[in-house]
Amino acid sequence: MRGFRPADRLDSLGHRVLIAAELQGLLEPDQLVGLDVTWLPAPQPTPPGDYVAIVPLLSRWVGGTELKHLPQLKIVANCASDTTTWTWWRRSCAASA
Q: CA-to-CA distance for 28 and 75, rounded, in angstroms?
């Protein structure tokens, strides 16, 4: 399932990221601007791809097998379903851009 893509931002999509689908209701659309978000439902396996970040819930196992299939991954920010981790992660991305 593909994530939020505002029509006026299609040309400026940036980093591909995986974010736990359970966090979707906690995030405002303006927090996702510039990201190509794939929402990651809990029961589905971690998809392979050129994602640069993953924000899974703490309950999701992200180990060697998953990491092997995410070769561009630079950030893993586990989340306990609150916005604290998300805010930290967005600031980290902004600082490294």
A: 21
Whether 21 and 2 have beta carbons less than 8 Å apart is answered as no
In this structure, is residue 1 part of a structural domain?
no
8 A C-beta contact, residue 55 and residue 79: yes
Overall domain count for the chain: 1
Residue with tokens 């990201």: 35
pLDDT tens-digit map of 14-54: 899 999 998 898 888 888 988 999 999 988 999 999 999 99
Domain limits for position 25: 7-96
Question: How is the beta sheet containing 75-76 ordered, strand by strand?
Answer: 35-40, 15-20, 53-55, 75-76
Cβ-Cβ contacts under 8 Å for 90 (sequence gap 6 or more): 31
> If you average pLDDT over residues 70-90, what whole number do you get?
73
